[in-house]
UniProtKB/TrEMBL annotation:
Name of the protein in question: AraC family transcriptional regulator
A Pfam family reported for this protein in Swiss-Prot or TrEMBL: HTH_18
Organism of provenance: Shewanella nanhaiensis
Alphabetical list of PROSITE patterns matching this protein: HTH_ARAC_FAMILY_2
PANTHER family tied to this protein: ARAC SUBFAMILY, HTH-TYPE TRANSCRIPTIONAL ACTIVATOR RHAS-RELATED
UniProt keyword list: DNA-binding, Transcription, Transcription regulation
InterPro entries registered for this protein in UniProt: AraC_XylS_family_regulators (IPR050204), Homeodomain-like_sf (IPR009057), HTH_AraC (IPR018060)
Length: 287
């Protein structure tokens, strides 16, 4: 329960130890803690949090609801904007995965072609999931986060989130869909952006294609893609940069211009924001 990501009001912080923290991007990060004999009020106001007890936790329970006690291999899933009260017992170690709501929805759209509007993260306390436990213990807990390849750790993290999306009850499937673009218009807009990403695309172009005002188009686009139109255009450009870094001998400056960026620095800033590393570091990792 990291104070760097979400807030907790603690009555005794003297037993808390942070072993390590690692941010992959601004949307994804890990933390490994030990704590004991503490009462706290946890405010999850930043991102969703998926937590697993590595050891201990047998005396730990929530005091605001009726729930089981903790224990090794037990998970809690705290959605953004949730609040909870806890009583911690004997020393326990746990790992947190912090992830952004839009990141999860974008991953669902990319991997499963799931409509982002149908996904909602529920609040779950002390559940078990063997697949997720294996990923946490053997793919994440047992590696050095700072020496491990950034891309490898990001892949492992995405595998955790994909497994969560596939597991029954770990996300809510909402049948009633409100807002957003129709499937036909969403495909039309996506295809248009992918065909013209190399040049400046004006909002009015996209709104005209959708036959909507610019204001309503932006709102509906965000519902359908979990990104703003500009964020989606940047995403498409960065995906093309990634492809060229793998397959082309072009210079970074030429790739930047070919993919619609003003210059290499402009490209590098957005590439690092999306992947957590620079284009040059990514290029070297492919050698």
């Amino acid at each position: 329960m990291s104070e760097n990501h979400n807030k907790h009001i603690s009555f005794n912080d003297s037993h808390k130890i942070c072993f390590r923290q690692h941010a992959l991007t601004e949307n994804l990060s890990w933390a490994h803690y030990q704590n004991s004999e503490e009462r706290l009020f946890y405010i999850n106001d930043k991102q969703h949090t998926l937590s697993m007890y590595l050891s201990g936790g047998y005396e730990t329970h929530r005091t605001d609801i009726q729930a089981d006690f903790g224990g090794p291999g037990r998970f809690s899933l705290m959605p953004k904007d949730s609040e909870s009260r806890w009583q911690l017992g004997i020393p326990q170690q746990f790992m947190h995965l912090y992830f952004d709501d839009n990141y999860l929805k974008q991953l669902a759209l990319k991997v499963f072609d799931m409509d982002p509007r149908t996904i909602e993260v529920p609040e779950l306390t002390f559940f078990e999931n063997q697949g997720l436990e294996s990923l946490f213990r053997y793919q994440v807990a047992n590696i050095d986060w700072h020496t491990q390849s950034h891309l490898a750790l990001e892949q492992i993290t995405n595998t955790v989130l994909v497994s969560m999306l596939q597991s029954s009850g770990l996300t809510k499937s909402l049948n009633r869909i409100k807002g957003g673009l129709s499937p036909h218009v969403a495909r039309l807009i996506s295809d248009y952006i992918q065909q013209h990403y190399h040049r400046q695309i004006y909002l009015c172009e996209l709104a005209d294609l959708a036959q909507l005002s610019e204001y309503h188009f932006c709102r509906m686009f965000k519902e359908s893609f979990a990104r703003t139109p500009q964020e989606y255009l940047t995403y498409i450009r960065i995906e093309q940069v990634k492809h060229l870094l793998k397959t082309s001998a072009q210079s970074l400056s030429d790739i930047a211009l070919d993919c619609g960026f003003a210059n290499q620095s402009h490209m590098g800033r957005y590439f690092k924001k999306q992947f957590g590393i620079t284009p040059r570091a990514f290029q070297k990792s492919q050698l």
